[in-house]
Each structure stands twice: as C-alpha cells, then as structure tokens.
Amino acid sequence: MAIKNIKAVLFDLDGTLSHHHPSGADFFADHISGLGFKISAEDKIRAEHWTHFYFARSLEIQSDSKTYADSEEAFWTNFSKRRMVALGLPSSDALELAPKISAYMAEVHRPKAFVPEDAFPMLESLKSAGYILGMASNRETPYLDKLKKLKLDTYFKFALAGGEVNSFKPHGAIFERALELAGVSASETVYIGDNYYADVVGAQRAGITPVLYDPSNLFPDMQCAVIRSFDELTGLL
Q1: Which tens digit of pLDDT belongs to each residue from 143-168?
Q2: In 129-195, beta strands by DSSP E
Q3: I need a labelling partner for 207 at 20 to 30 A (CA). Which of 10, 17, 87, 170 fits?
Q4: Do 225 and 191 form a contact (C-beta atoms < 8 A)?
C-alpha cells in the first residue's frame, strides 16, 4: 500500500519514537501476578486496549482529571484501580489494593527511555528525501529537553505539545496546529502513532493519512496502514 504525494511526516512521541524498559504495562501486570492473581495474555491485551483508550482523552480520563485535580496521588491510585479491573481483577480487590499498587509503581518502577534502533535510519532517510518532519504529542508542556536526551531533536522542524494549544489527540485542534507549523495541507501529510484511538482516529478526523505503529500486533485488522517496524515506513511513501 503506497501513500502518494506526501510532503510532511508527523510523529507521536510516547509509545512510538520513545519507549520504556520495562514498560509500565508489563511491570504492572507482573507485579499483580506476583501477588497471586492469574493474568493471561488475553487479560494483558484487554488492559492495554483500555489503557490506550483511556489516555486518548476519553470521557473517563476527563472526568478523573477533574475529580482528582488537587491530588496527583489520588489520580494514579484511581488509575491503578481501573487498570486492575481491566486486567480482570474483581472490583473489590482492585479497590483494596489500589493505594499500595500505585505507591509501589511510583517507588519501584524506574524504566529507561529508549528509541528503537530502526528509528534513526528511518528518520535520516526521510529527512534526506526532503520530507518535513514534525511531532505532535499529548504532553501537557514542551518536551525539547526530552528529545535532546533521546537524540531526536535534530530531525524535527517542530515538536508540539497538546497543552500548548489546549487540544489533545484525537481532538482536531492539535492536528490543525501541526499542519500550520509544517506548512502543508492534510492531504499532503501522514501521521504515525501507536495509539489507535488517539492517533489513527484523530488523524482521520483531521483528514490526515494515519499509519499505525504496532510492533506487538495489539490492534490487528485495523482499517489503515500498519507498520510493525520503522523499516516498513519508507516503503509506504
């Protein structure tokens, strides 16, 4: 499937170009398993689907953000409860365990951020070919320092945070602003991201061609272009 007449290639950051080891999902599920709860592969996939949906500016996260606006700790405790329910734990167990699990994650989970090895040659190739490269993330604040640490900053014309325009994927304004910064139309643009609900749905609503980055096959049979590795991206353009 070739995508033609493209001038700009825009990327998501977290979960796409930037990853964590160990991932929060794996660390969380492994800890729950260590407490004696049986967590199947299907449970993990269901929980990951829920997590992706939750952070795609769902009504749930919007409500929780207001409810726990005065306490970040309370927000993450509630998130831990919701995540355990998504993993298949009874609501009563999730409610009881949530404070301890949330505190454990905050204290013990210390992942290392990394960029997939095949991302750098892909970015070099796209930049050399003359594509405008940009980034749009659902972060609250600018993240140039993060990009510098990951050695990604030199590739991008801009890196837009949703908080800068008070719009978060899948809502349209963040994509519209990204197009303005790139100086291109939606029909001349592709957007690559790992979250189907935020990245693919949001790009489609904005008239941008989406490419789902899905190395673990979390979202099979999606009605859009899908890549399992960044090596596959240059072949699409």
Answers
A1: 999 999 999 999 999 999 999 999 99
A2: 132-137, 158-161, 189-193
A3: 17
A4: no
Partners of 21 in the beta sheet? 112
Q: How far, CA to CA in Å, does 197 sit from each of 10, 136, 140?
A: 17, 15, 18
d(C-alpha 161, C-alpha 41), whole Å: 33
Backbone angles phi, psi at 218, to 5 degrees: -70, -30
Task: Determine the Cα–Cα distance for residues 44 and 207; give it in Å rounded to an integer.
Answer: 32
- Report whether CATH 3.40.50.1000 matches the domain 8-20+113-236: yes
Mean pLDDT over 12-17 rounds to 98
Residue 191's DSSP bridge partners are: 10, 210
Intra-chain end-to-end CA distance of the chain, in Å: 9
The answer to whether 13 and 23 have CB atoms below 8 angstroms apart is no
As a whole number of angstroms, the distance between CA 96 and CA 82 comes to 12
pLDDT at 223 over 90: no
- What pLDDT shows up at residue 4? 83
Q: 48: buried, middle or exposed (CB in 10 Å: 19+, 13-18, 0-12)? A: buried
Average pLDDT over residues 120-145: 97
In sequence order, what are the residues at sequence separation of 6 or more whose Cβ sits closer than 8 angstroms to the Cβ of residue 70? Answer: none
pLDDT at 1: 62
Bridge partners of residue 209, in order along the sequence: 190
Maximum Cα interatomic distance, the chain, rounded to a whole number of Å: 55
